[in-house]
Write a structure and sequence with these properties.
- This protein is an alpha+beta fold.
- The protein is 37% helix and 19% strand.
- The protein contains eight helices and eleven strands.
- The strands form four sheets. The chain has a four-stranded antiparallel sheet, with helices on both faces.
- Strand 9 (272-275) and strand 10 (279-284) form a beta hairpin.
- The longest helix has 21 residues, at 114-134.
């Protein structure tokens, strides 16, 4: 079995304690537990068992895994079960792959209100698709949506977005027959973006009015209703991006891509290149549906290049 020479666990063991100290007060107990689980995964600290070959008597120690869903080494079988279940739901019809992403200004709000804003993002994306599909001008049917939330980009910058797999058709309003999609259904354009923006901002404003959002540090001023309203007015005047096209190679390939992220951490061990006392380097691939640049310290790099970032 291939084992990468460098793992996320190695980074945590070398720099984890210093990083937790430097970010004291900003790291939750849950996050600390995740880091600890990754650090001790498949080590003697979790125990294990001895495997022995009956033919040659060769023995080896196999340590237990942490089973934490954020661990790069765990949850592979769980992800495969998820993939098999989603593939079993696929219909013999065309499928579309859509990505709903938030502007950077909303991303900052989401970073301080993760549970609330991520839920609104998923809800707004699904409601956008079902609303357009129900319109007789576009489809006139009830559709299903498979949606997966991603919160980080290839350069490990905070980048909340939702991947959606949508069938090219749906059930008629009376539930009696299948309605196939028309040419141009769910094509990229302002229709998807404008509806998504309106639905999300309305829900975000309602969450603020209900006292469900809290702000601190550089965003503390947004706790004032007038300041928050002004911020929403500003972002409502900007262009929002909804990326849409048919899945390359078919829906199974897109589901396989999503399965790699449904039960694992933001970066795989296979992407890690180098680690020293001050920096960690990793490979990244340009995300073509995102207009976000890499971190400023890195500058513009070609696709499939490596990125070297400070550990603190």
């Amino acid at each position: 079995m291939f084992r990468p020479k460098l793992e996320v666990a190695d980074i945590f063991r070398l720099h984890g304690e210093a990083w937790r100290t430097a970010n004291a007060g900003h790291v939750s107990l849950t996050q600390r537990r995740v880091m600890t689980a990754v650090e001790i995964c498949r080590t003697a600290e979790l125990g294990g068992h001895v495997e022995r070959c009956e033919d040659c008597a060769h023995t080896r120690i196999s340590y237990n895994s942490c089973r934490n869903r954020h661990c790069p080494k765990c949850q592979w079988r769980t992800a495969q079960k998820w993939l098999a279940a989603r593939e079993a739901e696929l219909l013999p019809v065309p499928y579309f792959h859509l990505v709903f992403r938030l502007p950077a200004a909303i991303g900052a709000i989401a970073y301080q209100n993760k549970a609330q804003v991520y839920a609104l993002l998923l809800k707004a994306a699904a409601e956008t698709l079902t609303t357009i599909a129900a319109d007789r001008k576009h489809l006139g049917a009830k559709i299903g949506v498979t949606a997966v939330l991603h919160t980080w980009g290839q350069q490990l910058q905070h980048h909340p977005h939702v991947h959606c797999i949508v069938p090219g058709g749906g059930i008629s309003p009376d539930g009696k027959f299948w309605v196939a999609c028309k040419p141009g259904f769910l094509r990229p354009g302002c229709l998807l973006s404008d509806l998504f923006r309106r639905l999300f901002l309305e829900s975000l404003a309602a969450a603020f009015d209900a006292g469900e959002l809290q702000f601190c540090t550089e965003l503390v001023g947004l706790n004032d209703p007038k300041a928050f309203a002004a911020a929403l007015a500003l972002v409502s005047a900007t262009e929002w991006v909804v990326y849409a096209k048919k899945p390359f190679g078919g829906p199974k390939q897109v589901l396989a891509y999503l399965a790699r992220y449904t039960h694992r951490v933001a970066i795989a061990n296979s992407r890690l290149v180098d680690l020293d006392e001050t920096h960690v380097s990793f490979r990244w691939k340009k995300d073509h549906h995102s207009s976000l640049p890499p971190p400023r310290t890195a500058g513009w790099l070609p696709a499939h290049s490596s990125l070297r970032l400070p550990c603190q």
